[in-house]
Amino acid sequence: MQRQVRNAFTLIELLIVVVILGILAAIVVPQFSNASDSAIKSALKSQLQTISSQLELYRVQHQGSYPTLGGESATNDGWDVMITEGYLKETPFNGYVGMSNIIVGTSAVMATAKASATAGWATDNAGGVWAVGFDPTPTAEYPDGEFSSEQSGG
After folding, report:
1. How confident is the model over 32-64, as pLDDT tens digits?
2. Per-residue pLDDT for 147 more than 70?
3. Is 45 exposed, middle or buried (0-12, 13-18, 19+ CB in 10 A)?
4. What gap in Å lies between CA 125 and CA 150, rounded to an integer?
5. Are the beta carbons of 153 and 144 closer than 8 angstroms?
């Protein structure tokens, strides 16, 4: 009696492979989503450090005055002075809320903007710029008070 040579996988073998791939995907996918959150946070920190240092450079070169950012007639999403005078190459993008525009106001106005995500950035036009979507006050999760240029050197 001769044995027949098989050229295909059985249904059981295919099911085992699918189950193993499913288990691996369940383990790996959450790690990728955490990595993308970390990347957004790192990008925001880097942008805020750049914004902070450029605001300080502007202040030093303009007799102690900070630039006026934002406003109704603003161009470059409110970053006009910083971009046209070469302090920033391009409009900063807040990947957390997906916006680039900057609003100006009191802490109450900025708190509203942070809560409703109507802007990518908020400023008090006194050297402080905040990434909308993050609270600049220290918490257990963000002991450094994420993400404020005031606390990253400005």
Report:
1. 766 777 787 788 888 888 888 888 898 899 888
2. no
3. middle
4. 12
5. no
1-33 residues labelled b (16+ CB within 10 A) or e (exposed): eeeeeeeeeeeeeeeeeeeeeeeeeeeeeeeee
**Which position has the token pair 């809320």?**
97
Report yes or no: 108 and 126 within 8 Å, Cβ to Cβ: no
Distance CA 89, CA 95 (A): 17
Q: Token pair of 74, please?
A: 């603003």
Q: Cα angle at 101 between 99 and 106, to 5 degrees?
A: 115
| CA 26 from centre of chain | 26
Q: How many CB atoms lie within 10 A of CB 154?
A: 20
